[in-house]
Amino acid sequence: MSANIPLSLSELERIRLKARKRLPTSGTGSLVRRRLGHSLEFREHRAYQPGDDIRNVDWRASARYGLSTDYLVRAYEAEEQFCLLVGVDVRPTMLLPRDAPKLLFARWTLLCLAHIAAREDIKAAFVPLYGPPETRVEFAAGTAIVAAANRFAARLDQVAASPAPQPEALNASAMVRSLPQSSATILISDFYMAELGPLITLVQEARRGFRQVVLCELDTWPAERALLDGQMVRLRAVGGEPARDGDFEPSESDLDKAARAIEEQMERLRAATRLGGVIHTGWRAPAQTRSTEALADAFRQWFADFAEACELFGRRG
User: Fold this and answer.
1) Is the pLDDT of residue 51 over 90?
2) Mean pLDDT, the chain, as a whole number?
3) Confidence at residue 168, expressed as pLDDT on a 0 to 100 scale
4) CA 186 – CA 215 distance, rounded (Å)
């Protein structure tokens, strides 16, 4: 295991190589598959494979040359380096559960992504989803990606502990609008925010054209609920469920209501972002995830599947 992450560098290299195999290639040489539009030069048609963006299907060519069950996909030659933006939610709910916080899981995720990205022909940057606006976000390449990720990870607890802006204001909105077409945005959050509208707008901006968005949901409610027996809590607003003033000891009915509010929130988010170029993935914590060691074990079992689901690695532009 590396100093700051639950996976060794050799394990991350195996994950990187396995994730590359998920992306189909055509012909020889470097992989050129991208889901992009007019900024890229058309290269060739190839057979549709699971995971391809449906927006790249050439329906006319498919009808003319494909078999009845086949589609032909337009492949493009990259003109610009692929960029990866990782946004991490830093609101107070990400510090829960106290002994196995989601923010630590998010930190491990971005650091592991950085180690893999450093071995790829891409650029990467990291930004908090909330907090003071970032005046300047620089994309790093090569080993500088790992250094940038370590600096960002060191800031996470400090940003999370600072008072949340009222009302909640997304920090990454302006950033995603300036991303090149050859880019992907990963948003890591529990998505417990009171108002989904700004987030949905952010996702729509981030996928504009042929860019890609990955929504990574960290769901630790089962573990949080298991720790609440006999505890005093404070209820924040989630979706349509209003906040409750003061501390109180929750009843089973209160906890059931909170669970329904969280699930309804996620259903609304999934329905509003079920769009081309948007990938939904995440992690649901077992109720017994009550320590850093248990969290690390869960992370080791999860990350390889997440890296494959993102469909990021093994591409140029």
Assistant:
1) no
2) 82
3) 66
4) 6
